[in-house]
Amino acid sequence: ACGLFAEVAQAGPVFHFGEDDQSSLQINYALQLWAENRSYTSANHEGSSTDTYLRRNRLTFFGQYNDVIGYYVQLEATGDSRGGVDDRDVFYRDAYLTFDFRDEVRFIAGRFKNTFSRENLEACLEPLTIDRSDISYTPFAGTRDTGVAIWGNLADAAFQYRLAIMDGREGENVPQKAPRVTARVHWSPLDPEFDYGYRGTYLGTQRVFTIGAAYDYQADAAYANYTQLSNSKDYKAWTVDGFAEYPFSSGTYTVSGAYFNYSLGNAINEDPDPTLPVNTELEGFYVKAAYLLPSPVGPGRLQFFARHNGSEYQLPGGALDRRINAAGFNYYLNGQQLKLTLEHQRIDYANPNPTNPVLQDNFQTILGLQFIL
Amino acid sequence: ACGLFAEVAQAGPVFHFGEDDQSSLQINYALQLWAENRSYTSANHEGSSTDTYLRRNRLTFFGQYNDVIGYYVQLEATGDSRGGVDDRDVFYRDAYLTFDFRDEVRFIAGRFKNTFSRENLEACLEPLTIDRSDISYTPFAGTRDTGVAIWGNLADAAFQYRLAIMDGREGENVPQKAPRVTARVHWSPLDPEFDYGYRGTYLGTQRVFTIGAAYDYQADAAYANYTQLSNSKDYKAWTVDGFAEYPFSSGTYTVSGAYFNYSLGNAINEDPDPTLPVNTELEGFYVKAAYLLPSPVGPGRLQFFARHNGSEYQLPGGALDRRINAAGFNYYLNGQQLKLTLEHQRIDYANPNPTNPVLQDNFQTILGLQFIL
Amino acid sequence: ACGLFAEVAQAGPVFHFGEDDQSSLQINYALQLWAENRSYTSANHEGSSTDTYLRRNRLTFFGQYNDVIGYYVQLEATGDSRGGVDDRDVFYRDAYLTFDFRDEVRFIAGRFKNTFSRENLEACLEPLTIDRSDISYTPFAGTRDTGVAIWGNLADAAFQYRLAIMDGREGENVPQKAPRVTARVHWSPLDPEFDYGYRGTYLGTQRVFTIGAAYDYQADAAYANYTQLSNSKDYKAWTVDGFAEYPFSSGTYTVSGAYFNYSLGNAINEDPDPTLPVNTELEGFYVKAAYLLPSPVGPGRLQFFARHNGSEYQLPGGALDRRINAAGFNYYLNGQQLKLTLEHQRIDYANPNPTNPVLQDNFQTILGLQFIL
């Protein structure tokens, strides 16, 4: 089923070389420039603040070595100039090889997106709303991890499976180093989603209905009793998600949602090591929906969207539990290649922190400009 | 007036692609390798030192997406190997989009050179002397800032205007986050300087006379009384500058100068936050001049130059106030693409620090090799 | 003798441009992905650990500006994701210009491999075993240094000389900053090794016998009495090395070895500055050997190898003194461009540390996948 969908229509230059021109290199550049107004400044400053920064800023080099073997390497500096922190260090966001023996049996090796949540796997540059939800990041190796995955499409890509053996949690606080294992399946009976990455919207070019589920596991990821180095706990997480997008004559409608459950034997509420993240014990969900007008509005296409996220941590006093409501629009001047997005978010804490403005009810408005070469 | 001046004659490869080949990508590499001898080593070591380092080291990817939209992204590690600090982190020195609707109305958005001083806007790889003066950097976002600028050329580029809304000073020590606003105009009646960037020399290919002025402002940039979080002050700066270069049969003569005045309500001498830079209260100037011989000398062209900078801080005891005298030559083996520069600098402090060799009268000699692919 | 050997057969795309297409740019990507099992975790955790990481991860841009002048610039993030440290900062591993006037007189300027030990000069992506030995790195500027080298081949490349003036040790703990001087010669009477870099194996394509020797020197590199800032000592090191590889009908045999002697007036055992490395007083050697089967095994070529390293530091109680025995194989699916390596190492300490597992006898097994575009 490979090749059914067109790749991003225009993009950076592609070079063919090597024996019979079987090798290729494509160079892309992508920038998300955000201007943000926020109702607080920092934990110590409750005044509002404005900030312009480079949310994503990526040079990408990728291609095929031959029919089977491909490569992908991406330089990034996330959130450069955010909060006045300029000239952030560049790092390799992705660096991996692909081995595509056939559509049913594909391998990825290196540093690449972990294969747990649909939303993390939705392309960073093809989201539905301005960005994904925090809850779609796993506690360890939030968005990318290092290791190997096998995946493939079955039954004309109506089914997809993925199995990844990755590093997961590492370091000297891990009781016993075991690999992280992630398994994911989806069913995509209409126009199938057959790539390793999903998209947040297909802009009405596809008829998609996909439901997926994933399980994430690492044995002995933390001590519940770090003082005694005892009571080792396993990390377990699961998620289910759905996505539907359908073009009608009245416009294209998108709805998507997911539920998440992360746990680590409640170690966070016992006597954990100091580096254990608070989101190891977390339940949450998001729903998001959009409507893309059927005809252009001025020189571009207009898509309204809304999102609702909920997070329940298992922390004392219900700390950090919150709901996020957001709404806005995308204005596609040339598909995802040149896009303006405006999103307004309201964050409501179930139990606001009495002193820290970051953990009190707040709002932010973001105007985003996206460019992809 | 666009296109009047040739761009740098030779440079990295250019690739055309996309529909009707309207998109382009150019890849450049530029290296400034400096060997430096200095009369001191550090604040704790008054012995002389030698050092070879990579003053600028840049991979640049830029081009046009279409006739209107362009992009520019540049990787850099400044001063790599200076003082024995090797393998410095690479960051995005520039990352911006350009929207050139017509010569009178152009926009830049992203991270790019702030538009205050002429010398900061003179291309880093086309200076007159080995480098610009410290005083041409603003206290906040010294060379680059993040935001949006509108600019354009009027009256056949005899006049140029620029207006930028940028981040300016940010973070939790800023009383109230307001945007930084920078305005700049110049008059360039002969061969006009119509680019966003200037050059330190045109090597006799142009007849240039330009005078410019700029104003820089950010409301509520610091507390004069940080202890009480009161007495908020505005940042204000202004500069005037001139540049003239004219080729005669006896050679090409260049003279340039600028005056700078930075102020922030004298907060630095009251009770400021600990991160307020000392150059928020500063007055200074530079003058520089050069003579390019009319005929080649050996395989290249020889240009002698001299510079004088003065800085007066408003600090107790006249600390940091200094004069710099420098002289040297550029030897252009192939224009700016392959150039040797030798500069000798003497730094004289009005009130030398009694113990710190860095703040005592000193000198340095720099041999620089510049290469641009 | 230049051009006798083919460069790496296939590699990234090459672009020609400029006047008469005399300039070129080649873009390469290289990844070494390692999966490692180790008998300890850290100084505080003696349990075994597994780890997958990106040992080398490099984007390289290089080429010729014209017949004489070349350039080479390489981005890297070493050991990315090792020990759970993800997203390591990218830096310029190499950045230099080459001036090749003729085979007897060549210059390199910038940041490039220091020219002391053969093994450090063996290409990182063309080793014989999975990696080089620690002892082949010098105490200051272990693998790369900044400065200038002159080198060339004499007598049809049977002899090669190199002389480098580099930064060496720098910073305020250096008594008096003098340049580091490195000299190296080799004799290569059969198929000559005429590049600045060596290879760990030629895979049976050459008949090579090379012996080399080098001397490394920096005056006044450290105080033996740092408290009094007195008793300044010179750094001196020397090495001899040999390499032979010969293809027979029974297969290709490779043997190589080197001896190293580093000294800095025994300052490390007196009262040195706190940043003086322990390997300033060190004696060591390696021997390595390999056998490449004459015919393919399955789709690739199989090469067995073994290595033995010994290090004797001059530290109290014989601390750190150790032997390393390693064996494994390379499986070349397409020369060095796609290769699997498995190596098992045993590290035996002469005087194991009583509490720190890192400094006790241990072993590690590494499976490496190498890809070069």
Name the beta content range of chain A.
over 45%
In total, how many domains does the architecture of chain A comprise? 1
- Considering DSSP H and I runs of 4 or more, what fraction of the residues of chain A is helical? under 10%
How would you describe the oligomerization state of the chains in this entry? homotrimer
Low-confidence stretches of chain A: 1-9
What's the name of the CATH homologous superfamily of chain A? Porin
Structure characterization notes:
The structure is a homotrimer of 373-residue chains. Chain A has 373 residues and is an all-beta fold. Chain A has one domain: Porin. Chain A is 1% helix and 54% strand. A 16-stranded antiparallel β-barrel of chain A has the order 2-3-4-5-6-7-8-9-10-11-12-13-14-15-16-17. The longest helix of chain A is centred in the N-terminal third of the chain and has 4 residues, at 118-121. The model of chain A is unreliable at 1-9 (pLDDT under 50). Chain A binds chain B through residues 10, 12-15, 27, 29, 31, 33, 41-42, 44-45, 47-54, 57, 59, 75, 77, 80-81, 83-84, 86-90, 337-338, 369, 371, 373, and chain B through 15-19, 23, 25, 61, 63, 65, 69, 71, 73, 75, 89-93, 95, 97, 109-111, 141, 144, 146-148, 166-167, 169-172, 174-179.
